[in-house]
Amino acid sequence: MIEQLALVIHVLGWVFWLGTDLGVFVACRYAERSTLSVETRFTLLEVGMVLDRLPRLAVPLVWGSGLVLSAKWGYDFIPTSYGLIFALFWLVATWGIIFQPQGSALHRLSLNFQVLFYGIVIAVMSVGASWLLYQGDMPLWLALKWYAYVVIAIAALALEKYFAPVMVDFQALATEGPSDNLNEKLSRDIKPVYIMVLTIYAGTLVAGLSGLLKPVL
Fold first, then answer.
1. Is the pLDDT confidence value at 190 over 70?
2. What residues does each domain of the chain span?
3. In this predicted model, what pLDDT tens digit does every residue of 29-63 receive, in sequence order?
């Protein structure tokens, strides 16, 4: 029963994560357009920010459910109980980032914990996958999933950094109004954001496809 529930969460989490993030990407692309009114651009940005909430929650859920499924298949590299506790704290930190007021103590604490969680994922999964694959204890398809999650974690951290100046540009748009210089700056600042988003898409696709190809990898 637990494994079946984990499979449902894992599959639907990937689908929802990738599909909803595509909506965020499109909303941001339209919000960048200088031909639209300021009100329309802010509405599109707001829609994108709302859509971005649930995919963030999907990240620890997909990771935790994947841990359960790995243990079911006999690849219990990380103790399931410890891994689920880690995923739960990660989920709580993500909730704090999304739903707590920016600048509040809980929001800042959640941001710090998110960096910690992503850092642990990057370090443990990259080194662990390389070592286990070299030892012959991990199949290639599972190693690809781990590597994909490392790429996603790195891109997610970079995305937070690159999106900060974009928000400053939109705040300037609200107070100063549109101008050619501001529109050019916004387009320039948002390009790295698109690159990181596309990197996350690529990571999710690799992770998903590797699971489908496990009979041959």
1. yes
2. 2-212
3. 899 898 999 899 989 988 888 888 878 888 999 99
**Percent of the chain that is helix, strand, coil (3-state, to 5):** 85, 0, 15
| CA pair distance 16, 25, nearest whole angstrom | 14
* DSSP H or E run through 4: helix 2-31
- pLDDT tens, position by position, 15-36: 888 888 888 888 888 998 989 9
What Cα–Cα distance (Å) separates residue 212 from each residue in 11, 63, 125, 207?
11, 17, 20, 9
**What's the CA gap between 106 and 122, in Å, rounded?**
24
How many residues in total does the chain contain?
217
Amino acid at 3: E
Token digits for 33? 């357009």
CA distance 171 to 167: 6
Rounded CA gap, 144 and 204, in Å?
Answer: 11
- The secondary structure of residue 101, as a DSSP letter, is P
Quote the Cα angle for 106-109-113, to 5°.
Answer: 135
Residue among 170, 142, 136 nearest 66 (CA)? 142
Rounded Cα distance between 21 and 15, Å, is 10
The pair of three-digit structure tokens given for residue 182, joined into one six-digit string: 């501001």
- Rounded to 5 degrees, what are φ and ψ at 100? -95, 145
- Helices 38-51 and 53-72: crossing angle, nearest 10°? 20
**Cα dihedral: 29, 21, 112, 169 (round 10):** 10
